[in-house]
Write a structure and sequence with these properties.
This protein is of the alpha/beta class. The chain contains twelve helices and 24 strands. Helix 1 packs parallel to helix 9 and helix 5 packs antiparallel against helix 6. It starts with 19 loop residues before the first strand and ends in a 16-residue tail after the last helix.
């Protein structure tokens, strides 16, 4: 009997006690690091670690802007789960329901029927999704920037707009194709905007029909500042650098509508755009709606500093959570403060969470998570950046170098570190690749066009027995 087939069994016929089952829901920053640390610290006789995620890889999201801009290969910004978590059981599917009262999770595999998976401990770490708003046209015409698929699509789409603009004689079509709108002035929005503009500026050398002045890059931010994670003067510096690159920065402005690609802003301006990227914040994964775990008014799982799930004053036995989807008290901040949804906290919380599970399994108490936020680093394109670390404010090339060094050190596995460094090294000697591969998003279309349709006869109804 395979392990998959034995999901429901917790012992054998001789009454031997099986190892504890630790179910890790999600393989992002928290899930991957929790599973990796548990698999290294626990013996196979102590526990088995089961990881469930819809994707067979972990995406290192800080590298999405560089992957989208072609600075690194998209495959090098993801970590294959089966390669990294060799001592864990990997289930490629979705957890559709968690009944912690019974300590059972329902898993829907890629194909086939759903099944229940019992557990002793569960780590809820599905992460977050884009926090969208009911804006007309947003669902139909915008794209997010949280997954590697979105990053690859955006790269091909933007480069494809250059081909459209360079070929058409219609001024309106050209202007629409060369208008790029990014909504949200946090790290994701600023880095995506800056990296994509940098890529397009490099690509223009191959498009004699186009010039930089034809491009229109628009940043829409609902508040009066960008990069809220750093001090206002660093945010102001970032805006100044973007303005020097002739970008259109709209602060204290909201996206009101984008029906049929016609962008309407709250300041009264309106224009057409083929590219609308939504990076205006995140919210806890909707999978949490299908659990019986306690949550706060923002939909986050309520936790103790030890990362144990808590309902009021009652600690839920065997339930743990961390990362974007959880409300973890920040012991270094004022009373009532919670840890920010950042990779910096997620990775460190994962280590503490794993160590606490090991401690409880071995009869020791759990310890609280406590970490003072070190600071933030952001890329503004090739050789440009901004950083605020331990109160030290750094700009330009040193900040960009710090950004790359920090994230290279944080991406899991030596394999990926080497591949990323190789990409960066080759980029010193070779020009950036700026070719669009838009066909990968509809690979079946051309085959369908050249294949004749065949009328399939209806099957005859089965004859009644007897």
């Amino acid at each position: 009997m395979t392990w998959i087939a034995a999901y429901g069994h917790r012992g054998d016929e001789d009454g031997h006690v099986t190892p504890k089952r630790i179910l890790v829901v999600g393989a992002g920053h928290v899930g991957l690091y929790v599973a990796l640390r548990l698999s290294r610290k626990l013996r196979s006789t102590e526990a088995e670690v089961v990881v469930v995620d819809p994707q067979p890889h972990m995406t290192y999201q800080p590298f999405l802007p560089e992957a989208s801009a072609g600075n690194i290969s998209p495959r090098h910004s993801v970590v294959p789960l089966r390669r990294e978590l060799k001592r864990c059981h990997i289930l490629t599917g979705e957890v559709t329901r968690v009944e912690h009262a019974r300590k059972v999770a329902t898993v829907q595999p890629i194909t086939g029927p759903a099944r229940e998976v019992p557990y002793d401990h569960i780590v809820i770490a599905p992460g977050s999704v884009s926090r969208t708003l009911p804006i007309p046209g947003l669902r139909e015409h915008a794209v997010g920037f949280k997954t590697i698929g979105e990053a690859i699509w955006l790269r091909n789409h933007v480069l494809g707009r250059l081909d459209i603009a360079a070929t058409t004689d219609d001024a309106a079509v050209r202007q629409r194709a060369l208008t790029f709108v990014f909504v949200g002035g946090g790290y994701a929005g600023i880095e995506a905007l800056a990296e994509m503009e940098d890529m397009v500026r490099d690509a223009l050398r191959y498009y004699p029909e186009l010039k930089p002045a034809d491009m229109r890059w628009v940043l829409v931010e609902a508040t009066m500042r960008v990069l809220p994670e750093v001090d206002p003067d660093m945010g102001a510096y970032t805006v100044q650098q973007l303005l020097k690159r002739k970008m259109d920065i709209r602060l204290n402005t909201r996206l009101e509508s984008c029906v049929d690609g016609h962008v309407v802003l709250s300041d009264g301006d309106g224009f057409d755009a083929d590219t609308i990227v939504w990076t205006a914040g995140v919210k806890p994964h909707p999978m949490l709606d299908h659990t019986d775990l306690p949550r706060d008014d923002r939909g986050r799982v309520t936790c103790l500093p030890s990362l144990q799930v808590v309902r009021g004053d009652v600690v839920l036995d065997g339930a743990w959570s961390a990362g974007d989807c959880s409300a973890v008290p920040d012991l270094t901040g004022p009373p009532g403060a919670f840890c920010s949804p950042s990779a910096q906290h997620a990775v460190r919380q994962a280590r503490r969470l794993a160590d606490n599970i090991v401690a409880l399994l071995r009869g020791r108490p759990a310890r609280p998570y406590k970490h003072k936020h070190v600071g933030s680093v952001a890329s503004l394109g090739l050789h440009k950046g901004v950083a605020q670390v331990y109160g030290l404010k750094i700009k330009g090339l040193p900040a960009w170098f710090m950004h790359r060094t920090y994230h290279m050190s944080r991406i899991p596995s030596l394999n990926r570190k080497i591949r990323v460094i190789a990409d960066w090294t080759l980029a010193l000697f070779l020009k950036r690749e700026v070719v669009a591969l838009g066909q990968i998003h509809q690979p079946h279309d051309e085959f369908t066009e050249v294949t004749p349709s065949v009328q399939i006869p209806e099957r005859a109804a089965p004859r009644p027995a007897g």
